[in-house]
Amino acid sequence: MGAMNIDSSLASAEHLIAAPARLVVRTTPLDLPSADADPAALLDFLPADSSLSWVRRGDGLVAWGEVARIETTGDAQFSRAESAWGHLLQTMTVHDDVRAPGTGPVAFGSFSFDPSSGAGGVLVVPAVVVGRRGSTAWVTTVTPDTAETGPAQPTLAELLSVGAEPVRGPGRVTYSAGSRTAEEWLDIVTQAVARIRSGALDKVVLAREVVARTAAPVDPRWLLQRLAGSYPGCWTFSVDGMVGATPELLVRSEKGLAISRVLAGTVRRTGDDDADLVHAAHLARSSKDLEEHEYAVSSVARELEPFCTSMNVPEAPFVLHLPNVMHLATDVTGVLDRPGVSSLTLAAALHPSAAVCGTPTLVARDLIREIEGLERARYAGPVGWLGADGDGEWGIALRSAELSPEDPCELRLFAGCGIVAASDPEAELAETEAKLEPMRSALG
Ligand SMILES: C=C(O[C@@H]1C=C(C(=O)O)C=C[C@H]1O)C(=O)O
């Protein structure tokens, strides 16, 4: 399937890519201490000025430098990125001595929530990737192909010296309302509830932003290390200025198996474990949250099904405990029906799920456009990585912030929640505050 796509879009693909004519990709084993008690250890490799990350429980990928970049916008933001990636792969000579998911060529990506957003999508091919999965660790280098023998692979000591520059804190942080004040947002939620009760739609996800100003320029590593330390079960990501720790996996595809972790339905943690257990039990029985959750699971199952020969959609959700909130969660799995269907194709099909958009999808998206008053940009869009064989992992960019490209002391923090007929605007506002907590405490 890939080859046909690539051929037909070769001419346009070339315009999307900024890259040297030919690249050499080399993956070699790395002797790292095992993924031990420190879930942030991979992040220690990152330099201050260029940090790409996809890390969970000490495993994953960190990367820096930028050898190639693919940028897309509009309805075809995913498909055009994917054909450009296919085109770029044809320019690569690959030596992979490790052969595990995430070795060989990889691109880190981040895509806009709404295809009409000017933010568009990006795939970045880094110069150096350090990866770990259980007891296997590796380094991948990507260099322009020159006639001479390429540089030797960096040693562990050389790699560690890259991240030697001390991580700086952002100093005092002040927050202000973004495009809408909290009061205005309550009003927007009230309008949405009225629309739902009128029968126009079943569910819509509405989000708000808070703008943070820091005394010192933000060092993304400061945020990443604190997020990974506090939220080890989430995917701590950094791609092209989007930084966060998401609990929601849009899709992972690996060796013919696809999995999606769907979240919807939330309660705040109180800090009192006994009380939280009672709240978890309530959440698992709350008809409002179960309804909200069911919409999200159905949307994912429906979109994944055409790609699968068999699927497993659990009948009831489990409760996922995070330090700030608890969510209703369902892991949907499927056996893919054709080799080579890429994780980005799957992400494009699953996005936007009802967990971040609503039901029916297009009615909800139009209502978001009409009343939300927020430029989501890449918040709530797919974020993750893609390998040469199409396997990869894509999360939903939640519990996240967008670093301003113009001002190193400014970030936009985002949080949203699913609104259904039974939603109470004040409770939804409180839920957004709880969802802002990871980024707020990461800032310090
Ligand atoms: C939209 C967000 O979260 C989503 C909405 C949820 C809900 O409404 O219960 C739960 C998890 C996410 O799917 C966010 O964190 O910004």
TrEMBL record:
The keyword Translocase does not apply. One of its GO terms (biological process) is salicylic acid biosynthetic process. It catalyses: chorismate = isochorismate. InterPro entries: ADC_synthase, Chorismate_C, IsoChor_synthase. One of its GO terms (molecular function) is isochorismate synthase activity. The keyword Isomerase applies. Pfam families: Chorismate_bind (PF00425). Its EC number is 5.4.4.2. Keywords: Isomerase. Residues 182-435 form the Chorismate-utilising enzyme C-terminal domain. It comes from the Bacteria. Belongs to the isochorismate synthase family. This is isochorismate synthase.
